[in-house]
């Protein structure tokens, strides 16, 4: 049951070129900083990344974009990354933009074993192109397919050696559903404790979903847009 590995490099060691990765976080909040940095040092390429966002130019998934390690981005918000924009406009990057709620549900469905579902978001827009449409209660809905990944790479506030995880506030938004939808799930945590020390009633992701866990270091926790009053 002990799922602890020494660091990010050990955790990601068997990720290969061309694999699909789910990368947790919301904006720059709750992103797996250690694993992303380790990935930039591998030389991996042709990755497909599923994430709420594409980071910024010099942080988060922006670091992988700088090194052209990402072939395709599946995301809901990409507006803070100039390098992303450049690669998209130059035809260097495949992009699938998804309404944020639909993205979250596609990840959740993947983890729950639900192959597809209908949702009204996106009907009448470019999002609907090529998708089956059915009417429910007089309203058109699109058929959306679940998302899964070769690896889910997530970050939690606390975890134990069995892989049980607790998220802090906003960081739980995408980390939990993605943790359930990876064939192999890697969790980096700010605090790693022995099994049995977490309150069972506070656990957000049970350890059954987590394959590897380690205590991260040197978190920057950047803010995308600082607003002061």
UniProtKB/TrEMBL annotation:
Keyword Plastid part of the UniProt annotation: no
InterPro entries with a match to the protein in the record:
3-oxoacid_CoA-transf_A, CoA_trans_fam_I, CoA_transf_BS, NagB/RpiA_transferase-like
SUPFAM superfamilies the record matches: NagB/RpiA/CoA transferase-like
Keyword Calcium in annotation: no
A GO molecular function assigned to this protein is: CoA-transferase activity
UniProt-listed Pfam families: CoA_trans
Going by the UniProt record, its keywords in alphabetical order are: Transferase
What's the domain of life for this entry? Bacteria
Its family remark reads: Belongs to the 3-oxoacid CoA-transferase subunit A family.
Name this polypeptide is given: Succinyl-CoA--3-ketoacid-CoA transferase
């Amino acid at each position: 049951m002990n799922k602890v590995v020494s660091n990010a490099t050990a955790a990601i060691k068997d990720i290969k070129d061309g694999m699909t990765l789910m990368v947790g976080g919301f904006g720059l909040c709750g992103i797996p900083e250690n694993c992303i940095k380790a990935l930039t040092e591998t030389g991996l390429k042709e990755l497909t990344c599923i994430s709420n966002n594409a980071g910024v130019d010099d942080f988060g998934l922006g670091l992988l974009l700088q090194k052209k390690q990402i072939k395709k981005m599946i995301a809901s918000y990409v507006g803070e990354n100039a390098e992303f924009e450049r690669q998209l406009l130059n035809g260097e990057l495949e992009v699938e933009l998804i309404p944020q709620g639909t993205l979250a549900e596609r990840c959740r469905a993947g983890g729950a074993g639900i192959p597809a579902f209908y949702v009204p978001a996106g009907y009448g827009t470019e999002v609907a192109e090529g998708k089956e449409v059915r009417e429910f209660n007089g309203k058109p809905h699109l058929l959306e397919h679940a998302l899964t990944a070769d690896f889910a790479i997530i970050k939690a506030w606390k975890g134990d050696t069995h892989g049980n995880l607790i998220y802090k506030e906003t960081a739980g938004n995408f980390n939990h559903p993605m943790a359930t939808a990876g064939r192999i799930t890697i969790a980096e945590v700010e605090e790693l404790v022995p099994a049995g020390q977490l309150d069972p009633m506070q656990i957000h992701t049970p350890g059954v979903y987590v394959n590897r866990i380690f205590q991260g270091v040197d978190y920057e926790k950047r803010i995308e847009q600082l607003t002061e009053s």
